[in-house]
User: What shape does this take?
Amino acid sequence: AAWKLSDTQQLTASYSHRVQRPDPGEFNSFRMLLDPLNFRAGNPNLKPQQTQSFELGYEYRQAPVMLLATLYYRQNRDGVAEVLRDLGGGVFLSERNNIAQSRSGGLELVANGRLTKTLTYNLNGNLGWTQLDSLGPLFAPTRSTVAFSGHGSLTWQATAADLFQLNAFMNGKRLTPQGYADPMVGVDLGYRHKLTDKLSVMMTAQDLLGTFRAFQAIDTPVLRERTKTDFDTRSVRIGLTWS
Assistant: This one.
């Protein structure tokens, strides 16, 4: 349902029931050897995830500005995620499984616009609450968290031939069936110089601040694990683009 407030503003309300089926490879129960202590396998008994979503939205569109704000509440059941099982002797199996019911709610914001004649922005953020139920002794107890996630870009058209773009993202704290994963942050910088209408030189600096790393915890009555991963993704690439 939509209610037009003016030529530039609109209110919306919606309900949806979505069915998300697992990827075909997630049904493969054959155990793959990752290393001497870790196996991975699918699960032929997986069910599709069911999601009910309720949303209220506000839209403002007046070129070059676009603003979207959405309040949402979602209920999920039979979501698919990885579960770690102890096979004994220090060997573990990472298997796909249907997690417990979960609920989430929050506010999503989208903003696009122009700060000056040469400077534009694109922002997308989500402040959300999530609650994940327990499934038994192999899983963590019922928990909830509030987290912020988002991504955005700032584009500067310095000259007719030169364009700079700064991109940043943040993945908020995420609950898993057996624990949680800490936030992840990354910043990239790009530059393009047009040599001709068809030929451009491109440069990208990836993970500019060296912040791209991951931490995941498992806390269940029968298993505790901490995994920290530092990704060496910092790089500078230069190339030519012809169209």
